[in-house]
Amino acid sequence: MSDDIVSSSNAAAPSELIAREVARRRTFGIISHPDAGKTTLTEKLLLFSGAIQMAGAVKARKSGRHATSDFLEIEKQRGISVASSVMQFEYRDHVVNLLDTPGHQDFSEDTYRVLTAVDSALMVIDAAKGVEAQTIKLLDVCRMRATPIVTFMNKMDREVRDSLELLDEVESVLNIQCAPVTWPLGMGKTFRGVYHLLRDEILLFTPGEERADGEVEIIKGIDNPILAERFPLEIEQLKMEVELVHGASHPFDLEQFLAGKQTPVFFGSAINNFGVREILNALIDWAPAPRERDASVRSVEPTEQPFSGFVFKIQANMDPAHRDRIAFLRVCSGHFERGMKMKHLRIGKEIRVSSVVTFMASSREQAEEAYAGDIIGLPNHGNMQIGDSFSEGELLQFTGIPYFAPDFFRVVRIRNPLKIKQLHKGLQQLGEEGAVQVFKPVDGGDLIIGAVGMLQFDVVASRLQGEYGVDAMFESASISSARWVSCEDKKIFADFEKALSHNLAIDAAGNLAYLAPNNVNLRLTQERWPKVVFHTTREHA
Ligand code: GDP
């Protein structure tokens, strides 16, 4: 052990300590469609862990009433804040990192990319609505790394859909096996609680937000006569359903869950603090601690002593006084300590990290140390990009931090042609930051920008104005989707490029992309050029 300490330049933690710290980390994000209850549940998770004392704190941030923070004007208007980007709290002697996945209008490529930095995900579904569009997209991203998913069926205090039908929909639409862990007893006005299938006990529901400790009355055994006495109608229904569930659905299987093939399902009501404790426990008991991550030469174990990590998100100008950008780095191995030196692989430079932010539930704080699974914020003066890797000793380039094909496109024009240089510079930098994707048509013409969420365009326009002094206009483009293209056969690829040059563009990293005017065109083109591969994501260069 003493060898370990001596051999490292940064007075690294002994390996047992690293292993212990890694084992108690849980890093996850929430995937949901807007209004399913992500903000409410986030707040309740913080409340139950004791990280915040009062309900309403997260909501206040969301609506921009958070007095102590100042953000870029547009972020302020929309109530997007860095303080809620990463929330770290302790629960049952574990360190939980909850990474925010921006939804609503602030839905952007960041939302997808955050999911490449988590070890598990919590899927929140509005039980009245079932599986919705954004959830489908986000689950697809989770599938890329077979991320384990815990499911919470929310709003059981409302008139919701039939539970079996909901599970059926999750299984068929999202293509993941459901293993119900709790099962609802009634719903809406007659919602009485849930039956815990693994523990054979009923957790009784009382509406209200008061009990932050999550104390609930528990009745042992589904055949307990007390139940028949108190809820004669609902209990019969429950027994019937439980029989069906036992027969028709899968029992919880930890391995299947960890492989991303099965999701444990819980029912509850976030606003009523009901079912939240079970979710926290599932995350602690079942969700994985940080696992190995792929780098270009080998995979990296979280317990390795040298520090390593990668940047998955860059957020700009959160503090207008400093006009700084923060690069969000996910630690992949080793021990981070303030003041330590690390290598910035892409630019081949060593940096000393003396000022860094960590994210506690209550406020931004200076990070003193961090382990695999933790997120640290590095001040970025424009030299860090999404996908950049940092390490001590061996140079490691982490993989699997993709760019995602945009869904919305705009043609960029400027009012003052003399500003064309600034425009290009601005878009180049904003592209590297992942704020937007920039495409230069092969045949020439105006630049095209692409995004997965509409707010990205507003942010880019406002930043071009504020940071580069460029007054840009974004006009609608007749493009419906983009696909990066590649082909092993050089001759075929050359023919393809020649025949379709008017639909081709080069992105900020020099990759060729096909911009399809509509889905029919995309399908036909794919059919006509079977040897050409059309990619929906591209790796960081
Ligand atoms: P988000 O958009 O996913 O962050 O959703 P919010 O947390 O903002 O919730 C959307 C709406 O659903 C809000 O009006 C919440 O008060 C409400 N809501 C959240 N959880 C529940 C619940 O368990 N029951 C009911 N009836 N409403 C809920």
Structural class: alpha+beta
CATH superfamily grouping of the largest domain: P-loop containing nucleotide triphosphate hydrolases
Tell me the name of the CATH class of the largest domain. Answer: Alpha Beta
Distance between the termini: 39 Å
Shape: globular
**Number of domain modules:** 3
Key terms:
541 residues, Rossmann fold, Alpha-Beta Plaits, 7-stranded mixed β-sheet, 28% strand, disordered N terminus, binds guanosine-5'-diphosphate
Overall description:
With 541 residues, this protein is of the alpha+beta class. Helix content is 29%, strand content 28%. It has three domains: 30-70 and 122-286, Rossmann fold; 293-391, 3-Layer(aba) Sandwich (Rossmann fold), CATH 3.40.50; 402-539, Alpha-Beta Plaits, CATH 3.30.70. It contains 16 helices and 33 strands. Strands 28-25-27-26-30-31-29-32 form an eight-stranded antiparallel sheet. The two termini are 39 Å apart. The model is unreliable at 1-10 and 64-82 (pLDDT under 50). It binds guanosine-5'-diphosphate (GDP). Guanosine-5'-diphosphate binds next to helix 3.
What's the quick description here?
One of its GO terms (molecular function) is translation release factor activity, codon nonspecific. It comes from Ferriphaselus amnicola. This protein has 541 residues and is α+β, with helices and mostly antiparallel strands.
Record the SSE blueprint.
Elements: H1 2-7, H2 15-23, E1 25-32, H3 38-49, H4 57-62, H5 73-78, E2 86-91, E3 94-99, H6 109-114, E4 120-126, H7 133-144, E5 149-154, H8 163-174, E6 177-180, E7 182-185, E8 193-196, E9 201-204, E10 218-220, H9 225-230, H10 232-248, H11 254-258, E11 262-267, H12 276-285, E12 293-294, E13 299-300, E14 308-316, E15 325-333, E16 335-337, E17 341-344, E18 349-352, E19 357-359, E20 364-366, E21 369-371, E22 375-380, E23 389-391, E24 403-404, E25 408-414, H13 420-433, E26 437-441, E27 448-451, H14 455-468, E28 472-476, E29 481-486, H15 490-499, E30 504-507, E31 512-516, H16 519-528, E32 533-535, E33 537-538
Parallel strand pairs: 1-3, 1-4, 4-5, 5-11, 6-11
Antiparallel strand pairs: 2-3, 7-8, 8-9, 9-10, 12-13, 14-15, 14-23, 15-22, 16-21, 17-18, 17-23, 19-20, 24-33, 25-27, 25-28, 26-27, 26-30, 29-31, 29-32, 30-31
Helix pairs in contact: 13-14
The structure holds guanosine-5'-diphosphate.
The site of guanosine-5'-diphosphate (GDP) has 17 residues, from helix 3.
